[in-house]
Design a protein that fits this description.
By secondary structure, this protein is mainly beta. The protein has four helices and 31 strands. The strands form nine sheets. A five-stranded mixed beta sheet has the order 1-2-3-4-20, with no helix packed on it. Strands 12-13-14-15 form a four-stranded antiparallel beta sheet, with no helix packed on it.
């Protein structure tokens, strides 16, 4: 797919740049996703709460508590705490452990349940890209760690399957008025760890994991010009068309779909996946699927007995530090140095590697210059040990606020990509 218009995507933070690309051969030699010291964020300082002298200086607040989720493995019940003193809003995440003791997460870090991933995630500055949904930070309560990375729909550990990223195009109409439109890039990660850009669409697609490892895909078909439901196998990339319709609900246990046909005069239908047969949906079907949907879109919630006491003061609780690590999807040798990549992908047969990691680990310099007369548009000049070159839309791409460039550009500036292994 050749999305030239990605180049026009607006930038929010120049410090978050990333880049590169080359043909690759998958290798199982890369160890699991534990990042090396250079790629691991510094551990947050241990804290056991505030000293009595400091705690006494903080006035008590009237906190409201909202249940977030219950972690069965640790027996912890997590709650969102919020307060307002008339001038300032406060927010903390607190949890009750299996012994009935209350603790708080660090200020500025909150935890919530991600319904798409079916797992808790951390929210806070630097823990996710909210503009395009590229990165999330999955939380492991048992290890008190967060892993920042790109997670895919199609497997229990979210390492294999599909992932979409929202992007933006900025342009000018005939009257010289600036406009912005959005589109979605679709990426697939296979069992060997390789990530490929496989599709693009103006409307947001939907991905639902199936028990057998395949993914139910709901998307707009440009050729048929209507909603389409199909099944994709991430291991092979093979797609199977099911029906042109919208999906109301997928019963994974029963292997059934409740769909609405695109034609207004056709009734809703129940499709059985095992035999592909469809029948008109009746009133009992709507009630049954509605109940199933209500049950499935709920996080594992704490018992009412674990609700925080009304006088609990999160700002005075012992603080549990969270260690944040970067997920590593690939390891490349670039200019003779090993570079660990948080996200890289294949586009049109070439690997695109993020510039930020090259800046941090390979000595690449990036000069950003605003393009005169164009809103939120910039050009980028890369400086390496062998020369300087300004990248174009043909040899680079933007995802949100991050720049990726092809390997031939790096070679010309003295940073050749000499090998690349995917992290399975």
């Amino acid at each position: 797919m050749n999305k030239k218009h990605k180049w026009k995507a607006s930038l929010m933070f120049a410090a978050l740049l990333t880049a590169s690309g080359t043909a690759v051969v998958p290798s199982p030699s890369v160890q699991a996703e534990e990042a090396p010291a250079a790629a691991v964020q510094a551990d947050r300082a241990q804290s056991t709460g505030l000293p009595e002298s400091q705690a006494a200086q903080i006035p008590e607040l009237q906190w409201d508590f909202r249940a977030e989720f219950y972690d069965k493995g640790t027996g912890r019940a997590y709650y969102d705490a919020s307060a307002y003193d008339g001038e300032q809003y406060y927010n903390r995440t607190v949890f009750r452990d299996s012994n009935g003791k209350w603790n708080a997460l660090e200020e500025g870090i909150s935890v919530t349940w991600d319904y798409n991933l079916g797992r808790p995630v951390l929210i806070g500055e630097g823990l996710g890209d909210y503009l395009n949904g590229l990165f999330s930070t999955v939380f492991d309560p048992a290890k008190e760690t967060g892993t920042k990375g790109v997670f895919f729909t199609g497997s229990k550990n979210n390492r294999i399957g599909l992932h979409y990223i929202k992007n933006y195009e900025i342009g000018q109409d005939a009257q010289q008025n600036w406009y912005s439109t959005s589109f979605f890039s679709v990426f697939m990660r296979t069992g060997d760890g390789m990530i490929k850009e496989v599709d693009g669409a103006p409307l947001r697609p939907g991905f639902i994991p199936m028990p057998d490892g395949r993914v139910l895909v709901v998307q707009y078909s440009p050729t048929a010009k209507m909603k389409e439901i199909l099944i994709l196998n991430p291991a092979t990339g093979m797609k199977k068309h099911l029906v042109y319709a919208s999906l109301d609900y997928y019963d994974a246990e029963g292997g059934r779909l409740l769909v609405r046909y695109n034609q207004p005069n056709r009734p809703s239908a129940v499709i059985t996946l095992s035999n592909g047969k469809a029948r008109p949906a009746a009133e009992p079907d709507f009630k049954e699927f509605s109940n199933l949907a209500e049950q499935s879109y709920q996080a594992p919630m704490p018992d009412a007995s674990t609700k925080p006491p009304a006088d609990l003061q999160p700002q005075n609780l012992p603080v549990t530090p969270i260690q944040i690590r970067d997920q590593i999807t690939a390891r490349a040798t670039i200019g003779g140095k090993v570079v660990y990549l948080s996200f890289a992908f294949i586009q049109n047969g070439r690997a695109m590697i993020p510039v930020r990691e090259l800046m941090e680990q390979a000595g690449l310099e990036v000069i950003q210059q605003k393009v005169a007369g164009k809103v939120n548009s910039s050009s980028f000049t890369l400086k390496g040990p062998g020369g300087t070159e300004t990248v174009t839309a043909g040899d680079s791409t933007m995802i949100g606020d991050r720049l990726y460039v092809r390997s031939d550009v790096l070679k010309r500036i003295g940073l050749p990509v000499q090998g690349m292994n995917w992290n399975p």
